[in-house]
Amino acid sequence: MNQNFDILIVGGGAAGFFTAINTVEKNPSLKVAILERGSEVLNKVRISGGGRCNVTHACFEPNELVKFYPRGEKELRGPFHQFCSGDTIEWFENHGVELKIEADGRMFPVSNSSQTIIDCFLEATKKLGISVLTNQSVQSIYKKDSHWKVETQSETYLTEKLILATGSNPKIWEMLQNFGHAVVSPVPSLFTFNIKDPRIASLPGVSAQVSIKVKDTKLESSGPLLITHWGMSGPAILKLSAWGARILHDKNYQFSITINWLNDIDSDVSEKFLKELKLEHAKKAVSKKSPFDLTNRLWESLVLASGIESETKWADLSKNQLQNLSNQLTNCVFQVNGKSTFKEEFVTAGGIDLKEINFKTMESKLHENLYFAGEIVNIDAVTGGFNFQNAWTSGFIVANSI
Asked: Which residues are registered as beta bridge partners of 333?
């Protein structure tokens, strides 16, 4: 027997729930269901932000906010003028969840627990009479006259409007390709770099403010870098991985990076400064204390890598050693050999081609009454609450247009 709904949402994640709740709040007479393939809903919300749920980011200007999206920058400008991070804060406050801003701009529930967000969504769906149906893995989707027919392994559903909020689910992408939609093939985004190098081998946990370039490309970024047991991580690396998702995939994750440990000080300035230090600290050992904003351990490692022994005094440095040291500080080359997933937050670049979506409504340009919300489309962001903001904004727009 068919189950009939006015609106069927496939995907029980952030975008799916937000779309459902906003749709029924605007139009309580609609019969709405969420289908989830797993036995639990909102799993990604639960683990995000280390279990605290990084709901959004304190960037309130749409034209600034779009700059955090390697894919989707142009397309999101209009949507963010409809529903931006400020609206997200207000929405959650109206639903009993207060958010707070942390020093780096990320926003979390005051409770510091993602469960608060999950409870908020589950209570709202219950109150609004939205059916949440788990263990419903979609096997096929058909267009049937003016309706959509969705078959799972155990049920058949008919609906007037179909919303897909399935994230990066290859099976759903494949079904959409059968409907003529183009899917940009998915590649990983937001990953850390695997680097085996004696200069950083004993430094896990050390961080620095740096600027980085990927050799033979135009990719560059700056910000905090963290040395890890397997290589390098931190915002500066994650930004590179997001903006370079396709390029680095094509290089099979084998490439060189150049790090400036002094961030914005170039080699000429650093060499000049080192010469002054040579005069000022003539009798002191070079390796003992960092004259820059670097930890002593990192400084010592770079000094040794410059061919300067640990007891060598400033006065005894040769011109060659000074140049080597300046080079290690400002043009430090590392070979990257593979990648690792950043925490559990696996983000992909790829999804439904943005040219096939009307961003005023999030409706498919190819099929009437077919809508998209969240990461199913070829939009992704750097880390910091931006991927969730895309889920809220797209869900809100779908609800609005319905």
From this structure: 258
Q: What own/partner pairs with CB < 8 Å and gap ≥ 24 does 298-301 have?
A: 298/203, 298/206, 298/208, 298/227, 298/261, 301/199, 301/200, 301/202, 301/203
> Residue 153 CB: number of other CB atoms within 10 A?
10
The residue written with tokens 């300067």 in the block is: 308
Q: Which residues pair with 220 in a beta bridge?
A: 213
Q: What is the mean pLDDT of the chain?
A: 96
> For 167-192, what is each residue's pLDDT tens digit?
999 999 999 999 999 999 999 999 99
Is the torsion defined by CA of 3, 7, 10, 14 positive or negative? Answer: negative
* H-state helical runs in 129-209: 170-178
| Contact status, residue 171 vs residue 183, Cβ threshold 8 Å | no
Structure tokens at 267: 């080699």
Q: What is the pLDDT of residue 346?
A: 66
Q: How many angstroms separate the Cα of 77 from the Cα of each of 199, 276, 299, 355?
A: 43, 49, 43, 15
Tell me the two tokens of residue 44. Answer: 């990604």
Cβ neighbours around 140 below 10 Å, total: 11
Residues 181-202 as b or e (16 or more Cβ within 10 Å = b): bebbebebbbbbbbbebebbee
Q: What is the pLDDT of residues 59-87, one digit of tens each?
A: 999 999 999 999 999 999 999 999 999 99
Angstrom distance (rounded) from CA 183 to CA 380: 14
Classify residue 264 as exposed, middle or buried by CB count within 10 Å of its CB (0-12, 13-18, 19+).
exposed
Q: Please state, in angstroms and rounded to a whole number, the distance separating the CA atoms of residues 346 and 339.
A: 12
- Residues whose CB is less than 8 angstroms from the CB of residue 286 and which lie 6 or more positions away in sequence, other chains included: 303, 308, 312, 313, 314, 317, 325
| Rounded CA separation 327/321 (Å) | 10
* Rounded distance between C-alpha atoms, residue 376 and residue 163, angstroms: 11
Q: Residue 366 has which token pair?
A: 């190819």
Dist. CA 9–CA 15, nearest whole Å? 10
Q: Are 334 and 197 in contact (CB under 8 A)?
A: yes
The three-point CA angle 394-398-401 to 5° equals 135
- The dihedral over CA atoms of 109, 48, 114, 225, expressed in degrees to the nearest 10, equals -40
Token pair recorded at residue 353: 């081609």
Residue numbers in the chain where pLDDT is lower than 70:
343-346
